Amino acid sequence: MPSTYDTLRAADPAATQRLVEVTGTIFAGQPAERAEWCLRIGLPIAEFDRITREHRVGIDRGTNPPHTRQI
Question: Burial code of 42-58, b = ≥16 C-beta within 10 A, e = fewer?
Fold first, then answer.
């Protein structure tokens, strides 16, 4: 299963890069930033949240590395 980072980067690399630059991580954005970004790439916010939850569970289990560095 691809990581959240890989999924989001595949959808829109430029938007993912901007999100990382603005927030320092793909998970730390404010709700307005997250909504704006999701609208930009056409990803429902609920889907973003689902992917994020799955990735966090993977981090907790040690199966997904945290992606908090620059792309």
Answer: ebeeeebeebbeebeeb
